[in-house]
Amino acid sequence: MQISSKFTIAVHTLLLIDLFANERKVTSLFIASSVCVHPVIVRRTLADLKRAGLITVQAGTGGASLAKSAWEITLFDIYQASESAQENLFGFHEQPNPLCVVGKNIHAILDGHLIEAQQVFEDNLKTTTLAELQQETEKYITEEKE
Question: What pTM was estimated for this model as a whole?
């Protein structure tokens, strides 16, 4: 199952807010121009991030800013805020054939493995902060200037 692009849009948005907050107003139009999506999608993303307590947003064209340190925001926090997080990461076909030896046992065969894979995935997201991603971004900016 593929994770929605909402997650990567949310990460992109937070990186922009963190990088440019001291230089300019980080508005939905500015973010949309970088992400290359419609500003409405960015506004929905901002609303999700605000609801999760990751950002504050000034009404009108006031822009957005981080509500906590970039060192306190993990990829898992962003994943949860972007509504990409689901109870089960892996979708399952609805009605396997109960008369088939595989069909009637597929949940018993697969469920534990899929739950374990999702846990490993989520635990990995918890180990990376927005600040670490911002450091990587700064490295690319420095390389481009050289």
Answer: 0.85
